Description:
By secondary structure, this protein is α+β, with helices and mostly antiparallel strands. Among the domains are: 118-199 and 311-484, DD-peptidase/beta-lactamase superfamily (Beta-lactamase, 3-Layer(aba) Sandwich); 501-584, Beta Barrel (Lipocalin). It has 17 helices and 23 strands. The chain has helices at residues 3-13, 31-34, 49-71, 107-111, 121-125, 142-157, 201-215, 236-241, 244-249, 268-274, 293-307, 311-320, 332-335, 364-367, 373-384, 398-406, 468-484; strands spanning 97-99, 162-169, 172-182, 187-188, 195-196, 259-261, 343-346, 352-355, 370-371, 409-410, 420-421, 426-430, 433-442, 445-452, 457-463, 508-512, 515-522, 525-532, 538-546, 549-552, 561-568, 571-576, 579-584. Strands 4-3-2-15-14-13-12-11-10 form a nine-stranded antiparallel beta sheet, with helices on both faces. It has an eight-stranded antiparallel beta barrel with strand order 16-17-18-19-20-21-22-23. A two-stranded antiparallel sheet has the order 1-6.
Amino acid sequence: MPLETSLPTLVEREATRPHPGLRRRRDAPRVDAVFPARRRDGETAQRRDGRRLRERTIRSLPRLHDRHRSRGRPVTLPPRIPSSAKAADGTRGTPTRRTVLRGSLSAAAVAGTAGAAVVGTARAAHANDAPPGEADPAGDTSMTRHWRSRLATLAGRHEVPGAALGILVGDRIVKVATGLANADDRIEATPDTLWQIGSITKVWTATLAMRLVDEGSVDLDTPVVRYLPELRLPDPDRTRRLTLRHLLAHTSGIDGDVLPDTGRGDDCLERFTALLKDVPAVHPLGRACSYCNVGLILTGRLIERRTGTTWDAALRERVIRPLGLTRSHTLPEDVLAHRAAAGHTSGPDGRPRVDPTWIPRSSGPAGIVCSSVGDVLAFVRLHLDDGLGPDGTRLLSARAAEEMRSFRTATPNTPDNGETRGLGWARWDWNGRAVYGHDGRTQGQSSYLRVLPDARIAVVLLTNGGDAQALYHDLYREVFTDLAGVAPRPPHTPDGTKPPHDAGGYLGRYQRVGVLEEILERGGALFLRRTFTGGTPDEFELHPAGRDLYVHRLPGVRDWEPLKCFTLDGTRYVCQSDRVLPRIP
């Protein structure tokens, strides 16, 4: 059954009651724009309650926190509906809608929109290089002053409204910030501001899963269906053979960006898992590596079944609290107790505007954590110390910590996305030195984490708009060159050659849920035409950058975007933004 027919049918099953008391943002993505075959009057209104609540919440985070902190009033949020509560129509939890999440790459960046080109007030926000309002606990040392100045300069250059940088060297942490957490309300970013760390959350979920492996509650190579007998995938053989190792290493082959919003109830992951019976695959099980948000969400559901509690509670009790993390949360009502950054995209006038989008709770294990640079580095210390907590308590076995970063899954990916995959971690080789880390992107926010274990150095950058990728490249080159004498590999660029004579073998159409990509030849040059379901095509010229590797440039973004072509078991594939797309007739 064609995707355009089968997946909207899935959406229709999940429709629940409308909520008339909230207004929809005009520029918010519409489900019926992604799946036009099912567009009908009133259909979108039935599923938008959860999104509206999230949007209202995230829009108010910095404003409410600062206002009520000064007045001494508590901040409250409409209560989360428990899974046991029933609505008037008999459904459980909060009403739902369908989304297609871009995971580690924001929708704006993938689509080639001007969302990355946030301009105007962003540069002005960094004009004053004075220390932020909350002082660095390490003191205003020369190192702190230097990196605060460099962060402010580079963030202004790349039109990033606000950013925080954390550096761990040995056992010392330096935290600095620049710019604005919220450009609409002129809320200053500080070293302790909370940011959406996006897919860095996946490493937290993987760590939690490995704690259960240590306890003997689960096994990496036992079929997941043993723990989740209700699991059903379209392919019965994949259902029988799928393991936790496949999920953590992104080798399940499940299309990773089919992400229904199943509400804010405690049963949201259970309801999510029930929908996987309609989610297609993009490659054979274990035969390739394709970035998979769904795999980490399914890991979260497995964790729930083995711990008897929600993923949020299990993460809080088994990771966040034992590590003493006081600025890390999964739910927006908990974030309200802190100053939090809002994502920014470019408005019609080119100036940054707040985008209040919040990751649905049902996608939580793949990317919902909000944290500060200090808490992220405290989490990294657990892995640098081979599983020992801050008080010397063993939270993770040394063997489990080692396997997470040393297990290797060959990928068709490029340096930005990880040259190989561990269990949760992405891995790089920088001039012979092993590096692990992860990136994260939500709407208008980007995060970057790199760990150089042989020097006991870790660096985390959290941002809220602009050309964050260019900021990452420029800043991390300086930081790691200065502190360790090594630098990240530069992004791919055109090699100046013409497409090889055999490049025609990759001409054709490639598809995953929500996007169709076509490689075309015209006048001796290759072009990529990308069409999101219900959208208009974007076209980019492809420039050779290596064997079976091409690059193209998105509007408003400095660095080139890579596309890798490869063949597996006689089938042609492309890998774009860490996702594998098979060729279709």
